[in-house]
Write a structure and sequence with these properties.
Elements: E1 5-13, H1 23-36, E2 39-50, H2 61-71, E3 79-82, H3 85-88, H4 92-104, E4 108-111, H5 120-153, E5 165-168, E6 173-176, H6 178-192, H7 198-207, H8 220-228, E7 235-238, E8 255-258, H9 267-282, H10 285-288, E9 300-302, E10 309-314, E11 317-323, H11 324-328, E12 337-338, H12 339-356, H13 372-396, H14 402-425, H15 429-447, H16 454-462, E13 465-471, E14 476-481
Parallel strand pairs: 1-2, 1-3, 3-4, 9-13
Antiparallel strand pairs: 5-6, 7-8, 10-11, 11-12, 13-14
Helix pairs in contact: 7-8, 12-15, 13-14, 15-16
């Protein structure tokens, strides 16, 4: 009489979708095999993983759960049934490790479609089958990679669409989805015109109740990703991250190609955003004034190459400035200037603003910069009116009690108050300019006061100035202001 044994069934369908049986078909074959061979399988011991690669065991939750049970004292099954050995593992090394571990716990792995002989010769055949599976996996992975690379180079879409776009199934080309696109425009507007940090933007979006593409709350890194995604200028980007740990690859490995979808922003505006991100990374304002040699340190750029002018000290005092890359031989144009002369040029630049009142904020070409936030908040307020009507109808129709109606109304009133507060924070262009003139005058009084320490003067300057450009050829200094809150 045949010995009665217990087993579990492990079923897996790969991510690469090669020709293989569906989960249901694999399950049917395993249960048929068990029935013919006097093997019992409980429903709780059927482990199914759909669309998961077999390369890494730790990334297969059902597999790890099965191994854990096999090692337990209860010993719930004697056999692990699979359709093919490739379903158990595609990695020869991992296959040997886990099969050895199972052997110590008196659990065998059996492929119902690849029977092998007992003994050493059967074990050798099993290893050969596994080697062939691993070779096939490596080869298939290479072919898939080549195919995806070619598609990316042609501007094909093979990644999840970013916030602001949806796929037109009839054409296969993404289109701008207005409800989400408004959020993206807010992000770009706040970073470019209002000089808001990634973290501050994410907090604002979460206060407004906005969600990411996946329905989650915004984080600083989400905002940064959106600001750097070339999809918004009509391009596709692929091969940016390592699949294993999602770390960013070297930019030389990225593939960026023109695509067919409508861009949301111009190339010029997008480039301005990238330049600003790069500047803020190299010279973060929160830390730039802690160790300053001079209140102009890091703020003046070379007109030829765009690199900062660096100060040279004598007896502890910064006496002159020169292009950093000129010292390194990278820039061909000397921008040597005495410190006192540079200071005078800054003072004159501020005084010219007072007299002419003619200046522009940096990144003034932001599309619809002055209206996006207003429109979005007003939309939210209109939606609250509809909510109020609905909860009132629900109370009048007897669906909600008076207590529920009052509670819902209170929630809406709180949300309206928050939205109105945000709406009042959005200044119009005329008010913004008047506010900036006041700020600039206040800053001038600080930077021109030699009794103030370097840190105080440096912080004051950075509260209204994004950067300055010194042109040695015509001995001129251009000052680029940005919209800022009053200096406290």
């Amino acid at each position: 009489m045949q010995e009665f044994k217990t087993a579990c069934a492990y079923i897996r369908v790969s991510t690469d979708k090669q020709e293989e049986l569906s989960p249901d078909a694999q399950k049917r074959l395993l249960l048929d095999y068990a029935k013919k061979n006097n093997i019992s399988i409980l429903n709780e011991h059927i482990f199914i993983e759909n669309g998961i690669s077999g390369k890494k065991a730790e990334k297969r939750p059902e597999f790890m759960k099965m191994i854990s049970l096999a090692k337990s004292k209860e010993h719930p099954f004697d056999i692990i049934l699979v359709w093919k050995y490739s379903r158990f593992a595609r990695n020869q090394e991992e296959s040997i490790v886990y099969k050895s571990l199972l052997k110590k716990n008196n659990v065998d792995v059996i492929s119902v479609s690849e029977p092998v002989l007992d003994g050493p010769f059967g074990g050798l055949i099993e290893r050969i089958i596994e080697w062939m599976d691993e070779y096939y996996s490596i080869r298939l992975s290479g072919e898939v990679m080549r195919g995806m690379t070619e598609k990316a180079l042609r501007g094909g879409y093979q990644s999840t669409l970013p916030l602001g776009y949806k796929m037109d199934k009839s054409t296969g080309i993404p289109y701008i989805y207005k409800d989400e696109a408004d959020i993206v425009k807010i992000i770009y507007e706040k970073y470019s015109s209002e000089n808001t940090s990634f973290l501050e933007i994410s907090r604002f979006l979460n206060r407004m109740g906005y969600k990411t593409k996946r329905g989650a709350s915004f984080e600083a890194r989400t905002v940064e990703y959106i600001l750097q995604n070339p999809f918004y200028i009509g391009k596709v980007r692929w091969n940016r991250q390592h699949k294993e740990d999602y770390s960013i690859k070297d930019k030389s490995e990225w593939i960026i190609a023109d695509a067919k979808h409508e861009p949301m922003f111009s190339n010029e505006f997008f480039s301005e955003i990238q330049d600003k991100i790069d500047r803020n990374r190299r010279h973060p304002r929160q830390r730039s004034t802690v160790y300053v040699k001079h209140w102009l340190s890091g703020m003046v750029k070379c007109s030829s190459c765009g690199v900062s002018l660096v100060g040279r000290r004598s007896n502890g005092i910064v006496v002159n400035y020169q292009c950093s890359d000129y010292y390194k031989g990278k820039c061909q144009d000397s921008h040597f200037v005495k410190t006192y002369k540079l200071e005078q040029a800054v003072y004159e630049g501020f005084l010219n603003v007072f007299s002419s009142k003619d200046f522009e904020f940096i990144n003034k070409n932001t599309p619809n910069a002055s209206t996006v936030s207003d429109r979005t908040i007003e939309k939210q307020l209109d939606r609250l009116k509809l909510k109020e009507k609905r909860i009132k109808l629900a109370y009048m129709d007897g669906i909600d009690s008076i207590e529920e109606y009052k509670e819902n109304k209170l929630i809406i009133e709180k949300e309206r108050a928050q939205l109105l507060e945000e709406l009042n924070k959005v200044p119009d262009k005329k008010e913004s300019k008047e506010l900036m003139l006041k700020n600039i005058k206040h800053v001038y009084s600080i930077i021109s006061d030699e009794s103030q320490d370097m840190k105080t003067r440096a912080e004051a300057l950075r509260s209204v100035v994004d950067h300055m450009v010194y042109n040695k050829e015509n001995d001129s200094l251009s000052i680029f202001f940005y919209l800022a809150n009053p200096l406290k």
